[in-house]
Amino acid sequence: MTTETETAPRTTNGSGQPLLSVEDLRVAFHTDDGVVHAVDGISYSLEAGKTLGIVGESGSGKTVSSLTMLGLTRSKRSKIQGRIMFQGEDMVALEDNRLRRVRGNDVSMIFQDPLSALHPFYKVGTQLIEAMQAHRSISKSAARNRAAELLELVGIPDPKRRVDQYPHEFSGGMRQRAMIAMALANEPKLLIADEPTTALDVTVQAQILSLLQDLQQRLGTAIIIITHDLGVVAEIADDICVMYAGRIVERGSAEEIFHSPQHPYTWGLLSSIPRLDNPRDEELVPISGRPPSLINRPSGCHFHPRCPYVRDAHKRVDPQLSPVDGSTEHVVACLLESSVRSRIWDGIQSGRDAESLQRMAAASAEPDYSNVAIPVDQESEGSALSPGEEGVVESEAPGERHGAAPPQTLDEVNRRFQEERNPPSGGDGPGPGGG
Amino acid sequence: MTNIIEVRDLVKYFPIKRGVIFQRQVGAVKAVDGVSFDVKQGETLGIVGETGCGKSTTARLLCRLMDPTSGSIMFDGREVGAQKGDALKALHRDMQMVFQDPYSSLNPRKSVGSIISDPFVIHGLYTGQGERKRRVQDLMDRVGLNPEHYNRYPHEFSGGQRQRIGIARALALQPKVLVLDEPVSALDVSIQAGVINLLEDLKNDFGLSYLFIAHDLSVVRHISDRIAVMYLGRIIEIADRDELFDRPAHPYTQALLSAIPLPDPRRERARQRIIISGDVPSPANPPSGCRFRTRCQKFANVLTDSERELCLTVDPALEDRGAGHLNACHYAEATSVL
Fold first, then answer.
1. Radius of gyration of chain A from Cα atoms?
2. Which residues on adjacent β-strands are paired with residue B5?
3. Is B265–A235 a contact, with Cβ atoms under 8 angstroms apart?
4. Quick one: DSSP state of residue A424?
5. Which tens digits make up the pLDDT trace of B224-242?
6. Of B50, B51, B260, the CB nearest to A276
7. Distance from CA of B274 to the nearest CA of A (A)
8. DSSP state letter for A200
9. Residues of B numbered 10-69 whose beta carbons fall under 8 angstroms of chain A's beta carbons: which are they?
10. How close A13 comes to chain B (CA, Å)?
11. Please, which residues have CB within 8 angstroms of residue B41's CB and are 6 or more apart in sequence?
């Protein structure tokens, strides 16, 4: 549905199918306030033994996208579209009982808060044994031994005694280790770690991250790590997806995301954190505003209300992920011209002030939209336009709407455009709907 | 510069009791166990350390939200522990606290205007109704909130905005010192920066002194002038921030600094990290001699048995051991780890 040519997940280099490929995944929840578009068309893929980092603010859809992978967002009020191909099976379409066999066995998850994810009434060992017995026929005593082995594997001292303890007898770091042990109980091929270290101290965080890396090397597990800590992804992720308002706005290798980031949101994230490796009196630049409501999303580029480099046309044009110059794997959804983007990023790095950066964006020629379709938002048309830009839009837009753009782009854009114009009424597109 | 706060040998033990009716004390959690430091007029002192090291207890003792077991806290020439009644109220006026969780530290049933004007009510200031509202709206404006939101309730604000409400409330009485207990840890990264910048501006504008508690060392480094590192109820190293980050001398400080992941894949992956194993020992029963020895890399890998003897038996005092700043390690050695 999305522009397959542009956003198709990268395939493996030679070794055939990737372990996981998410294709145009959409998750919407019907609530009393309207339809929440929590995940809005994301695509990525992951190979065995690799680590993918997903970063973004609260409410950007990071967690929902991974819960969906385990079928944990299925409900009467939710609508899931797209495909999640895992080992040749579509996890979105999989029946509940089949899915239950995959969940916790081939794919498992580490949750953010180990205290609330572990059951307080059951011993840690019992919970580990349950995880094993749910998926394989194994005697209780064998499972118990394995539980102790697993606790030892994740570095819990005195595992034989710990097996019989309750979660409250464990420290925060040990609980998180117990969660990891539980997730690894059935040697999953894919491990999803949702903010695995957010609740922990840095020293324990370092232990947990090195444990994950170590286990990955030994067992060849693929890991998806969801976090808002850029330091953590810099340390362990091979590839990174930056999410904003339910979409991936930039995707690339860790190297690319940190050393030549392309999206203004990624710049914002990178310049809003105090860094130990930068001069210390450098001023922090917060991203202005707040994350958008996922019920009434902003028109055009969803980031435009918070973007310092916004042009009028960005309020109407919805950018698609497209490859960055000189790279096949690095994609970004931004309407600024790539030369302008690289100039601004250089400016940010050399410490130029915000105003001169904005002038840089404003002084550039009106961006070239040859690779994106321009829907015209009729409600806002004319109101927010300056005379000069009006011409540009009018000359381009009608042509685009009648098929000048690549068809898959146009369909997609039109569909989304329709959605955006009457969002809360639900019932868009085919599918079982929310009832 | 004069010291606005002088803390000497501060101790706080929480008793552990057994028995249902006849409770007897069987031990004590030594949350703060002999802490001394000064905060100078107009400076920001950062306190860092892991969960359970006594950071927050120190903050609470300082504001006299609880009474110390022993030790003295001098605030602006007054002994905090000796204040009672009106004098204590006056003391609280000069020393305010901002709490970690902006969700639970604001009363959900009160409007923002009434939350921020509560300090005025308690201290009987600005008694004219219009005057109070004007003051509150000034404060809201100052911390970057829209003054028109005077009548809104906390749930209508985002996390960052709520933290700004907490800051406005703390500033209402024009205090001399703000004690900030993890003020940004609960916020999203993009929001954090705004609150940190606000705190820095306010400090410059009002000539405040901060005691800034956090576990995030990069935030502490950004905002602090001096930094104290705590471990199991003690300060184990205290230095100017540049000194501490460039030449940390205590193995714990070194491990702490080395544990922070740098947001730069090239440097991060090239870096040699010191990973300390295990968890913090129980503060009810701290190890003999040096408290850090059970997790110390140096103790485990570098020292000889005869050298270890000292760590096992003698509790190292916080003193200058040739590194140019105070630390509490028998074998302190300034090394750069970043």
1. 23
2. B39, B75
3. yes
4. T
5. 999 999 999 999 999 999 8
6. B260
7. 9
8. S
9. 50-51
10. 22
11. B1, B2, B3, B4, B209
CA distance A274 to B204: 19
Look up residue B105 and give its amino acid: S
Partner-chain contact B197 A206, CB within 8 Å: no
Please give the C-alpha separations between residue A246 and each of A44, A63, A241, A249, B150, in angstroms, as whole numbers.
Answer: 14, 10, 12, 9, 32
In chain B, the residue whose alpha carbon lies closest to the alpha carbon of A279 is: B222
Query: Rounded to whole angstroms, how far apart are CA atoms B309 and B306?
Result: 5
Could you write out the three-class secondary structure of A139-195? CHHHHHHHHHHHHHHCCCCCHHHHCCCCHHHCCHHHHHHHHHHHHHCCCCCEEEEEC
Q: What pTM did the predictor assign?
A: 0.80
Q: At what angle do helices A202-219 and A172-184 cross, to 10 degrees?
A: 20
Output the six-digit token pair for A154.
């994740």
Instruction: Identify all chain B residues contacting A209, using CB atoms and an 8 Å cutoff.
Output: 261
CB-neighbour burial class of residue A8 (10 A; exposed 0-12, middle 13-18, buried 19+): middle
Q: How far is A363 from chain B, CA to nearest CA, in Å?
A: 27
Query: Does residue A82 sit in helix, strand or coil?
Result: strand
Note whether A202 contacts B: Cβ–Cβ < 8 A: yes
Using the structure block, give the residue that is written with the tokens 């019992």. Answer: A126
Q: pLDDT of chain A along its 435 residues, tens only?
A: 444 444 444 444 445 578 999 999 999 999 888 899 999 999 999 999 999 999 988 888 888 998 998 888 898 889 999 999 998 889 999 998 999 889 989 999 998 888 788 999 999 999 999 999 999 899 999 999 999 998 988 888 888 999 999 998 888 888 888 998 999 888 899 999 998 887 778 888 888 888 889 889 988 899 999 988 888 999 899 999 999 999 999 999 999 999 999 999 999 998 888 887 776 667 788 888 878 888 888 888 999 999 988 888 888 888 989 898 778 789 999 988 888 888 888 888 887 787 888 887 777 655 555 555 554 444 443 333 333 333 333 333 333 334 334 434 445 545 554 555 454 443 343 434 333
In the β-sheet with A89-90, what is the strand arrangement from edge to edge? A34-46, A20-31, A78-86, A89-90
Answer whether B304 touches A (CB < 8 Å).
no
Q: Which of A78, A87, A75 is nearest to A45 (CA)?
A: A87
Residue A96: is it exposed, middle or buried by C-beta count within 10 angstroms (0-12/13-18/19+)? Answer: exposed
Interface mutation vs chain B, best among A176, A282, A284, most B CBs within 10 Å: A284
| Nearest CB to B189 within list A207, A273, A290 | A273
Those residues with Cβ within 8 angstroms of residue A4's Cβ, 6 or more apart along the chain or in another chain: A408
Establish if A210 touches chain B: CB-CB under 8 angstroms. Answer: yes
Instruction: Quote the distance between the C-alpha of residue B163 and its chain's center.
Output: 16
Q: Is the ipTM of this complex over 0.85?
A: no
Helices A124-133 and A172-184 cross at an angle (nearest 10°) of: 20
